[in-house]
Design goal:
By secondary structure, the protein is α+β, with helices and mostly antiparallel strands. The protein folds into three domains: 48 residues, no CATH class; 92 residues, Ubiquitin-like (UB roll) (Roll), CATH 3.10.20.10; 129 residues, 3-Layer(aba) Sandwich (Cytidine Deaminase, domain 2). The chain is 29% helix and 29% strand. Strand 11, helix 9 and strand 12 form a beta-alpha-beta unit. The longest helix has 14 residues. The protein is globular and about 75 Å long. Belongs to the FdhD family. Keywords: Cytoplasm, Molybdenum cofactor biosynthesis, Transferase. One of its GO terms (cellular component) is cytoplasm. GO terms for molecular function: sulfur carrier activity; sulfurtransferase activity.
Length: 298
């Protein structure tokens, strides 16, 4: 295998069953036995697949005047943009509220991130374990997660009638066009950040993990001091509670996705006044909540 950081070139064998040739007067004469008589071909070739490696995040923090060091997380991610990924993870998980609370981030060793917080920043490990312990389908009560999230963050107060429908409907296709790793491998998720108050192109991040792509995106946004007051998070797939949680932490008022939301994602978006838009296509989309942010008058 030949690795190119985000993608790895591998050898594979492509299996192809060619269509059989028939002598018949119509398709109704083809039976199951004839369909199975096609020629099987095996063709060796090379291909590119998305890279996936573990990144361990170690956290150093002060507790009662003494420095402590503890593993915060191990993230399976696509290498590259690790600085943005770690910063975004710290923000979206509520470890810090601004990057000014981080004293240092060291990425000298492969697959290891050393984070040192400012001395006055306290770390409540029990709170993190209560709020962020679960992933989709793990069985932890969703309503309990929402209540814990509400203790950490206030609902947003987004501007009314600021987002034009034609703008939001174009975002998923623009994201797809900018997903270079997906076009190369077909094996990555994408997340984009669109800002209404700038003329900048869609900011895009990719990763084998949906959550990682969003964290990388948030890390870039916070490092660049981007304004998120009138912004939209664009997702290449479905909308889970965890992704809405990240938008809440980053104070992003709109989520636009290609796929469907879960019921808890909708409930969470409603609670925090986030517009949630799924199944977005060129001329239609499902608006699950937050319609007041749409500029519907011509």
């Amino acid at each position: 295998m030949e690795s190119t950081n985000q993608a790895t070139v591998i050898n594979k064998t492509q299996l192809v069953i060619s269509a059989p040739s028939f002598e018949h007067t119509g398709p109704e004469q083809i039976d199951a036995e004839q369909i199975g008589s096609g020629q099987v071909k095996l063709a060796p070739m090379s291909d590119s697949v998305a890279s996936e490696q573990a990144l361990q995040i170690m956290l150093s923090y002060s507790q009662q005047g003494r420095w402590q060091r503890r593993s915060l997380a191990v993230i399976m991610r696509t290498p590259g943009d690790d600085k943005a990924l770690v910063f975004g993870y710290l923000i979206s998980q509520g470890v810090v509220s601004t990057l000014a609370e981080v004293e240092a981030l060291i990425l000298e060793e492969d697959n290891l991130a050393e984070v040192k917080l400012k001395q006055h920043i306290e770390v409540d490990w029990q709170r993190f374990e209560r709020v962020f312990v679960s992933q989709s389908g793990c069985g932890v009560c969703g309503q309990s997660q929402l209540k814990q999230l509400a203790l950490l963050f206030e609902p947003l107060n987004p501007r009314r009638s600021w987002l034009k429908p034609e703008q939001l409907l174009s975002l998923p296709s623009e994201l797809r066009e900018r997903q270079s790793l997906f076009l190369q491998t077909g094996g990555s998720h994408g997340a984009g950040l669109w800002q209404a108050d700038t003329a900048n192109d869609l900011v895009v991040a990719e990763d084998v993990g949906r959550h990682n792509a969003v964290d990388k995106l948030l890390g870039h946004a916070y490092q660049s001091n981007l304004s998120l007051t009138q912004s939209a998070l664009v997702l290449s797939g479905r909308i889970s509670f965890e992704l809405v949680q990240k938008a809440v932490a980053a104070r992003i008022p709109v989520i636009v996705a290609v796929g469907a939301p879960s019921d808890l994602a909708i409930t969470t978006a409603k609670h925090f006044n986030i517009a949630l838009i799924g199944f977005t296509k060129a001329q239609q989309a499902n608006v699950y909540c937050g319609q007041s942010q749409l500029a519907l008058e011509n």
